[in-house]
Amino acid sequence: MVRALARVARRVARPFGVQRMEDVATPGARRRAWIDFHIFDHGALRAIWRNLHEVAPGVWRSNQPSPGQLARLKAQGFRAVLNLRGAKPFAYYHLEREACARLGLTLVSLPLSAGRPLPAATLQELHDVFLRLPRPFLMHCKSGADRTGIAAALYQLMIEGAPVTAAARELHWRYFHFRGGEAGVLDLMLETFASAQAAHGIGILDWIRDGYDPEALAIRHARSRGRTPGPRALPPPPRRAEWQHPTPPGGAAT
Fold it and tell me: What is the CATH architecture assignment of 50-236?
């Protein structure tokens, strides 16, 4: 039902030209961006449901923040935002990028997948981002459920050294993550690591480097759901993080 509603929303949105945007510099573009953000990207719902939770000291998770919510985070002392939806030519990204630049927040965009295993190189890139991001920071995807959930779990494992049982709580129905669908591959990933750790005492980073097989994971998950694994179930290409640093006095953001 959710996918059907999303398809209807895309068809409704298309005549308004709000699916892809180059920028929000003109008044007309800004109006279209706000229509897209609040209606078709569900920003109106997120205004009352933030899905905001603390992951670790100085690290928080949520759904997609609005510019106003980013301003409130800045006032609370936040220094950075990790956008797990990626730097895509849509209204949510243009509005977020503009707000972070105006507020002096570091913005890092690293797209993750909710329904496909993440490539090892993307997981290693995520670890590097975790190490470099100034605290406190907020990580988010669209709903704060699946992509944010696996990123929060990996933060617990990679940085906090938490046991897998504790990290796996970041993938939970209370955050609106449900393992019965495609996103269940994320739960399977953590379970596969837990089995390897129990058998060999391996850490998460060593497992990602030496024991992680995302293609085998994709095939196993598809078959567990009674499906033939097709190209859309396999890992996406590795992604690199895009950094937007605060603008220094008299300079330009990088």
Answer: Alpha-Beta Complex (3.90)
